[in-house]
Write a sequence for this structure.
C-alpha cells in the first residue's frame, strides 16, 4: 500500500507557498517603485544612457516701426 | 470527495511554481517597460520677438477763458491761477502722454508732429518755446519711480517743432513689465494775444526695435 504524505509536510508546503507569494509581490512592487525613480533620474542626469534636450530659440522679426498717435488739446473761450 | 495529502502536496507545489513563474514574468515585463522609459525626449520652444508700443494717454489741459497775461500750462504742474484750466497733478486727463513698451524687445522712441507753437496756438506772439516737451521716466503719475524703463534718458525740455524730423525721445526703452514706461510731459504758454478756440496738436510716436 502506498504511503501518503503527512499533514506536517502539507502544512510546511502551505506556509512555503504563502511566503513565496508574499515575497514575490514585494519584489514586484519594489521593482515598480525603482523603475519610476530611474525614469526621473535618467531624464534629469542622463547617467543611465537616456538624454533630454530642450531647444529654446527666439526668432527675430523684421524691424518694422510701430507706434501710434496722441493728442495735446486745450480750448480758449472767446471774450464775452 | 476527500483529497489525499499527496494530491494536496502536488497542488501546493504547482501553486509555488505558478507564483514564481508569475513573478518572473512580471519582472521581465517591467524591465522591458523600463527600457522604453529611458528613451530620449526633446522639447522645442520657439519665441518670436515682437516690437510693440502703445500711447496710453492723451493730454487735455481743459477749457478756460482768455488769459489776462502770460499763462504757462504744464502737465507736471498744478496750473493754479490760470483760469479754469486743469490741475494736471490731480486730473488724470491732463497727465503727461504715457508710452508703454508692450512688446518683448527694447525700443527706440521718436516723435513726429506737424505742429509747432505758432501752428498749434496761433497768434502773433507765439514763439518756439511756447510749446515744449519733456521725456521723463516711468508713468505719468509716478515719475521715475513707477515702471521707469528708459536707459540713459536725457530729461530736459525740448521744443515741439515740425522741422525736427524725428525728435528723439528715448534710445532704449526696455520691455520688462516692471520697467517699460516713459512719459512725455508738455508745456504750453499762452497769452492775451492767443486766439480763442479749440487747439489740437497731433503727436505721432514711432517705436523701432533697438538693434
Amino acid at each position: 500500500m502506498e504511503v501518503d504524505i503527512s499533514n506536517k509536510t502539507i502544512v510546511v508546503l502551505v506556509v512555503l507557498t504563502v511566503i513565496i507569494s508574499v515575497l514575490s509581490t514585494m519584489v514586484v512592487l519594489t521593482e515598480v517603485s525603482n523603475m519610476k525613480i530611474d525614469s526621473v533620474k535618467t531624464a534629469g542626469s542622463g547617467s543611465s544612457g537616456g538624454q533630454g534636450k530642450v531647444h529654446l530659440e527666439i526668432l527675430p522679426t523684421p524691424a518694422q516701426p510701430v507706434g501710434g498717435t496722441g493728442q495735446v488739446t486745450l480750448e480758449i473761450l472767446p471774450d464775452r | 470527495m476527500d483529497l489525499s495529502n499527496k494530491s494536496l502536496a502536488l497542488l501546493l507545489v504547482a501553486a509555488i511554481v505558478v507564483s514564481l513563474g508569475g513573478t518572473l514574468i512580471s519582472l521581465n515585463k517591467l524591465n522591458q517597460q523600463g527600457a522604453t522609459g529611458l528613451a530620449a525626449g526633446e522639447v522645442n520652444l520657439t519665441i518670436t520677438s515682437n516690437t510693440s508700443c502703445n500711447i496710453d494717454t492723451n493730454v487735455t489741459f481743459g477749457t478756460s477763458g482768455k488769459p489776462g497775461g502770460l499763462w504757462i500750462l504744464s502737465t507736471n504742474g498744478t496750473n493754479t491761477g490760470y483760469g479754469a484750466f486743469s490741475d494736471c497733478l490731480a486730473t488724470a486727463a491732463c497727465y503727461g502722454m504715457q508710452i508703454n513698451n508692450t512688446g518683448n524687445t527694447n525700443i527706440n522712441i521718436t516723435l513726429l508732429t506737424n505742429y509747432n507753437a505758432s501752428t498749434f496756438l496761433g497768434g502773433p506772439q507765439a514763439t518756439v518755446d511756447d510749446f515744449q516737451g519733456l521725456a521723463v521716466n516711468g508713468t505719468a503719475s509716478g515719475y521715475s519711480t513707477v515702471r521707469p524703463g528708459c536707459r540713459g534718458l536725457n530729461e530736459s525740455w525740448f521744443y515741439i517743432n515740425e522741422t525736427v524730423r524725428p525728435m528723439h525721445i528715448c534710445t532704449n526703452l526696455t520691455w520688462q513689465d516692471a520697467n517699460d514706461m516713459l512719459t512725455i510731459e508738455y508745456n504750453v504758454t499762452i497769452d492775451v494775444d492767443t486766439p480763442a478756440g479749440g487747439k489740437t496738436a497731433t503727436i505721432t510716436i514711432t517705436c523701432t526695435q533697438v538693434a
Notes: The helical segments of chain B are 5-37, 117-121.
